[in-house]
């Protein structure tokens, strides 16, 4: 069984900066042994490339509780499923519609040509808000990605216009492909501890499988919080960098985190690798 895992990352198929081949090379240089490419609403394939094991994966947007959007990972999907394929195509259509609306509003705000720029530079299969933040940064409308989101993108109030599939639908679609459903980056949504606990409880009651104990460079204290909240429900532990772009000062320590998860029940425990 391999020892070093990173089960959450993105390529240029969605909002990552690396092509598939570049990402494989980058992860190999980091010493990663098993990866799941989890592009937004795009299913990746199983394989073994340049010594790295590829586990099929996807990151799916879903609606939950008072119109909140959360992301669910599908990992180790073993069978083709028309139910999952149709759900992912439905989500990609939402993304296309949302991109056109963001493009329209940005032009009204005085930032024209965003979607044309994104398509020409990145050719993504799945357009996300991060693409628009990069456009604003590249065109010097914002100093950095964070400023682009805070000062411009988050002021475009379009969240209520889209009917993402609900949590139960997403879990069922992942199960139809004999995969495992995982709550992605649970501390990223700005929820209070009580809300995170309610999400975990609901997810468990819907037969969800696991949760990211580690997402990006988390502290041991943060990981212990997720463990304490999820332990009563028996959720499996997953981990991933949520890699989009290389950050020399924030390299994901997959070796350390993989050892941390050995203290729990990792999602990969019964995988055939």
Commentary on this structure:
By secondary structure, the protein is α/β, with parallel strands linked by helices. It has a domain of 75 residues: DNA polymerase, domain 1, CATH 1.10.150. Helices cover 39% and strands 17% of the residues. The strands form two sheets. Strands 5-6-7-8-9 form a five-stranded mixed β-sheet. Helix 4 crosses helix 5. It is globular and about 50 Å long.
Helix/strand/pairing class, anyone?
Answer: alpha/beta
From the 3D structure, determine the CATH topology of the domain at 87-161. DNA polymerase, domain 1
Q: Judging from the principal axes of the Cα atoms, what is the shape?
A: globular
**Average pLDDT figure:** 91
* Rg calculated over all Cα atoms: 18 Å
Strand content is 15-25%
CATH class of the domain at 87-161: Mainly Alpha
Provide the succession of SSEs.
EHEEEEEHHHHHEHEHEH
Task: Give the N-terminus to C-terminus distance in angstroms.
Answer: 7 Å
The name of the CATH architecture of the domain at 87-161 is Orthogonal Bundle
Question: What's the SSE blueprint?
Answer:
Blueprint: E1 5-9, H1 20-29, E2 34-37, E3 47-49, E4 52-54, E5 57-64, E6 68-75, H2 82-109, H3 114-122, H4 129-138, H5 145-151, H6 167-176, E7 180-183, H7 193-205, E8 210-215, H8 220-230, E9 236-240, H9 254-261
Parallel strand pairs: 1-2, 2-4, 7-8, 8-9
Antiparallel strand pairs: 3-4, 5-6, 6-7
Helix pairs in contact: 3-4, 4-5
């Amino acid at each position: 069984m391999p020892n070093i895992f990173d089960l959450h990352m993105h390529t240029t198929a969605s909002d990552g900066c690396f092509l598939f081949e570049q990402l494989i090379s980058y992860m190999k240089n980091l010493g990663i042994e098993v990866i799941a490419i989890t592009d937004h609403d795009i299913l990746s394939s199983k394989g073994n490339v340049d010594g790295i094991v590829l586990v099929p994966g996807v990151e799916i947007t879903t609606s939950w509780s008072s119109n909140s959007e959360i992301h669910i990972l599908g990992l180790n999907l073993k069978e083709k499923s028309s139910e999952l394929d149709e759900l992912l195509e439905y989500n990609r259509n939402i993304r296309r519609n949302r991109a056109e609306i963001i493009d329209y509003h940005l032009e009204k705000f005085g930032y024209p040509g965003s979607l044309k720029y994104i398509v020409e530079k990145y050719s993504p299969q799945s357009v996300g808000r991060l693409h628009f933040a990069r456009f604003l940064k590249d065109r010097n409308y914002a100093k950095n990605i964070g400023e682009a989101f805070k000062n411009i993108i988050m002021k475009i109030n379009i969240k209520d216009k889209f009917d993402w599939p609900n949590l139960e639908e997403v879990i069922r679609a992942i199960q139809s492909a004999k995969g495992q459903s995982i709550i992605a980056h649970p501390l990223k949504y700005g929820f209070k501890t009580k809300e995170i606990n309610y999400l975990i409880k609901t997810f468990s009651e819907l037969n969800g499988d696991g949760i990211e104990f580690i997402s990006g460079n988390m502290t041991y204290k943060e990981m212990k919080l997720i463990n304490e909240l999820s332990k009563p429900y028996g959720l499996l532990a997953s981990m991933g960098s949520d890699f989009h772009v290389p950050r020399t000062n924030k390299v994901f320590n997959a070796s350390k985190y993989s050892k941390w998860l050995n203290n729990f029940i990792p999602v990969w425990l019964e995988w055939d690798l």
